[in-house]
Amino acid sequence: MSDLAVALGLVLVIEGLLWALAPGLGRTLMATAAATPDTQLRRAGWVAVALGAIIVWLIRG
After folding, report:
1. What's the gap between Cα 11 and its chain centre?
2. In angstroms, rounded to a whole number, what is the distance separating the alpha carbons of residues 42 and 6?
């Protein structure tokens, strides 16, 4: 569970850096995501979950 907490913390750091360093880019990405169909966002989310799980599985063995 501590690995999960660290991973979530890193996600927040990366997202925070995006908004802090390039707020215009973040706004553009949010507008694009808002205009994207739900099925495409859902598919992208599942792909991200799968890739993340594979990366953790490879690293943690």
Report:
1. 7
2. 24
Helix (H, G, I), strand (E, B) or coil at 57: helix
DSSP letter string, 16-49: HHHHHH-HHHHHHHHHHHHHS-HHHHHHHHHHHH
CA–CA separation, 38 and 10 (whole Å): 26
Which residues make Cβ contacts (< 8 Å) with residue 19, sequence separation at least 6?
Answer: 26
Dihedral over Cα of 59, 18, 48, 8: its sign = positive
Global pTM value: 0.67
Task: Give the lowest-confidence range in 5-14, 37-46, 51-60.
Answer: 51-60
23, two tokens: 């707020």
